[in-house]
Design a protein that fits this description.
Elements: H1 10-21, H2 28-54, H3 58-69, E1 73-74, H4 76-83, H5 87-99, E2 103-108, E3 111-119, H6 121-144, H7 147-154, H8 157-173, H9 181-184
Antiparallel strand pairs: 1-3, 2-3
Helix pairs in contact: 2-6, 3-5, 4-5
Length: about 190
C-alpha cells in the first residue's frame, strides 16, 4: 500500500494508480482532500434524505440554520457573506422558505430603503430534529473509527478549516462564488 499506510482505502488505491501513471507527481493533498470529499458525500446524502423528509433542501436549510444561529434576523448582505454566495443566490435561496412561511422580509430600521430577513418560529422547530438525526449519524460513524484514526484526522482539521474559509472569502472577492458551490454544500453551516 502506498505512503506507508497499514491499512489502505479507496484514496490510497487512487494515489497508487496515479503514481503508476504519473511517477513523481505529488498526490499528498489527495490523501486529505479526497477523504474529506468522500466523507462529505456520505454525510451529505444522509443530510439530504433527512431534510427531504422535512420538505426542505440543503440551500434552504443553510439559510434557516444561519438565521437561527445569528438570533433570527440578518441582512441579505450578511447572508451572502456568511454563505459565500452572490446577492442573486441569496434571492433564490430565500424564495421557497419565504413562500413556505419559514422566513419573512421586514424593513431595516437602520436603513428605510433596505430589508432584513427574519426567521419564523416554525422554521426554528425544523432545525432540531434534522440536526439530531444528522449529528447522530455522524457520531455513529465516528464511533466506528479506531483511536489512532481519530487522532490523525481530528488534530489537523481545525487549521485547515481556517485556510479553506479564507480561500472561500478570496474566491468570493474575485467574483467566482459559483466555482465553490461544492464548499458551501459540505454542511459546514450546521
Amino acid at each position: 500500500m502506498p505512503r506507508g499506510h497499514l491499512e489502505g482505502d479507496y484514496i490510497d488505491e487512487v494515489r497508487g494508480q496515479r503514481d503508476t501513471i504519473f511517477p513523481g507527481l505529488d498526490t499528498s493533498m489527495v490523501a486529505l482532500m479526497g477523504r474529506i470529499s468522500r466523507i462529505a458525500q456520505v454525510v451529505q446524502a444522509r443530510s439530504d434524505a433527512v431534510r427531504a423528509a422535512q420538505g426542505i433542501v440543503c440551500r434552504e436549510f443553510d439559510v434557516i440554520s444561519l438565521l437561527a444561529r445569528h438570533g433570527g434576523t440578518l441582512s441579505p448582505t450578511r447572508v451572502s457573506t456568511e454563505l459565500i454566495i452572490s446577492g442573486a443566490g441569496v434571492t433564490k435561496r430565500l424564495k421557497r422558505p419565504s413562500s413556505a412561511g419559514f422566513i419573512t422580509r421586514i424593513p431595516d430600521p437602520a436603513d428605510g430603503r433596505g430589508s432584513l430577513v427574519r426567521l419564523a418560529a416554525e422554521a426554528r422547530d425544523l432545525l432540531r430534529p434534522i440536526l439530531e438525526s444528522v449529528l447522530g449519524f455522524v457520531g455513529r460513524l465516528r464511533a466506528r473509527r479506531r483511536e489512532p484514526d481519530r487522532q490523525l484526522t481530528e488534530a489537523p482539521l481545525p487549521p485547515w478549516s481556517r485556510v479553506f474559509a479564507l480561500a472561500g472569502r478570496c474566491v468570493v472577492a474575485l467574483g467566482m462564488a459559483g466555482s465553490i458551490g461544492v464548499m458551501s454544500g459540505l454542511g459546514h453551516h450546521y
